[in-house]
Amino acid sequence: MKVVEPGNVATDFTGRSLDLLSDPSLDAYAAYTKTVMQKQMASFDNVSTPELIAETIYEAATDASSRFRYLSGADAHFLMDLRSKASEEEFMAGITQQFS
Q1: Confidence tier at 99 by pLDDT (50, 70, 90)
Q2: Greatest CA span in the chain, whole angstroms?
Q3: Average pLDDT value for the chain
Q4: Is residue 78 within 8 Å of 88, Cβ to Cβ?
Q5: What distance in Å separates the CA atoms of residue 40 and residue 19, rounded to the nearest whole number?
Q6: pLDDT at residue 64, as a whole number
Q7: 86 with 94: CB under 8 angstroms?
Q8: Nearest CA among 79, 44, 53, 63 for reference residue 1
Q9: Are the C-beta atoms of 5 and 75 separated by less than 8 Å?
Q10: How far apart are CA 43 and CA 89, in angstroms?
């Protein structure tokens, strides 16, 4: 078993997957949703190509070693580096602050 952890990828996934957030019947969440969306879209300044992610998946699938985790994309490496330097509580507080 292998785990591939990509960062943001230059596809339409975010646009399509977040359509629900623009549902007008969810107006109680509108202000929060707007903030999260703006910050999420800003994080897409440094995205990976689908080809890079595919290369990482291929590497994981064909690697005969016992390596478990494969990061793909500069932002994925950055996030995991932050995670390794903080406690779980500190890391989650940082994520919460980023999207508040």
Answers
A1: confident
A2: 51
A3: 85
A4: no
A5: 14
A6: 96
A7: yes
A8: 63
A9: no
A10: 22
Angle between helices 74-84 and 88-98 (to 10 degrees): 130
Q: How confident is the model at residue 21 (pLDDT cuts 50, 70, 90)?
A: low
Other C-beta atoms within 10 Å of 72: how many? Answer: 21
Identity of residue 68? F
Q: Is the pTM of this model over 0.85?
A: no
Helices marked H in 1-100: 13-17, 30-42, 50-62, 74-84, 88-98
CA distance 7 to 48: 7
Structure confidence at residue 16 as a pLDDT band (50, 70, 90): low
